[in-house]
Design goal:
alpha/beta; Rossmann fold; seven-stranded parallel beta sheet; 12% strand
């Protein structure tokens, strides 16, 4: 048999998707049986980049994607349709939350160690967010304004959420699995700051609270921004009074109403600072 005849006779085998190298077979990689591998890949890719940048610890900032800066917030409040019976709400709260998150991003990045690499090349207390708009954008923006790196853990959603323009490009990640995104948000966190938000913010906050409560994670300072908002939204004391949580669990949370106070609360609660 000639070389030509051999080549012609195995054409069907060569074209079969089963003959593709597994790593190059998109249909295989995206199939149900490879879900565990995809989960591992989402861990490994982000982990590799974070190590390359020397990110040793983070301050995680949660909050609404719907919060907007001055001007945009006022315009949105003036034009947004209201549900029946609802009272008009000025955009000032939204804009203030945005500006304070931005200010906190600057403060934490300047004072926390994100700008510095220690003897081992490590960066500490790097701002980490969900990578989207609103409060997330504001915190990344504050870090960017002082020349510090910051992280954006973005996620694919049905209504596409693009990364904001302020997280460090090399540290802007896209996840499919919420669970792996949450793991990366939690595993280097040395503090948590929670600005007003909705279901996503509550989900992420209670994830950290549960990990701390169940000793799956070392205790970290947790500060909720805008005490009035949080006290109206959740009666944490009621949970303790009804025996749903321990009275000590309420002590996981503190509250602050401006960016400087947030930083003070974190330091008083034991936030580790390099060189201190």
């Amino acid at each position: 048999m000639t070389a030509s005849e051999t080549s012609d006779s195995n054409a069907a085998q060569m074209k079969s998707t089963s003959y593709l190298l597994p790593a190059l077979d998109e249909e295989f990689i995206l199939g149900d049986s490879m879900r565990g591998v995809r989960f591992l890949l989402e861990y490994a890719k982000a982990e590799e980049r974070l190590r390359a940048w020397g990110v040793a610890s983070t301050i995680v900032v949660f909050g609404s994607a719907r919060v907007m800066p001055h001007g945009e917030a006022d315009e949105a409040a003036a034009t947004a349709p209201l549900p029946p019976g609802a009272k008009p709400r000025p955009g000032r709260s939204s804009a203030r939350w945005y500006e304070e998150a931005r200010r906190f991003g600057r403060i934490a990045s300047e004072r926390g160690g994100a700008l510095l690499s220690g003897p081992d090349g490590a960066r500490h207390n790097v701002i980490a967010t969900g990578g989207g708009p609103g409060v997330m954008e504001a915190a990344n923006r504050g870090a960017s304004e002082v020349g510090a790196p910051s992280i954006g853990f973005n996620i694919t959603l049905p209504h596409e959420q693009e990364p904001n323009a302020y997280s460090t490009p090399d540290l802007t990640f896209r996840f499919h699995y919420f669970a792996m995104r949450k793991m990366h948000l939690a595993m280097r966190a040395r503090a948590l700051v929670v600005f007003p938000g909705g279901f996503g913010t509550l989900d992420e906050m209670f994830e950290i609270l549960t990990l701390v409560q169940t000793h799956k994670m070392e205790p970290v300072p947790i500060v909720c921004f805008d005490e009035g908002y949080w006290k109206r939204l959740i009666d944490f004391d009621l949970l303790a009074e009804e025996g749903m949580i321990s009275p000590r669990d309420v002590e996981f949370l503190t509250f602050a109403d401006d960016a400087e106070a947030v930083w003070t609360k974190l330091v008083e609660a034991g936030l580790s600072l390099p060189g201190v």
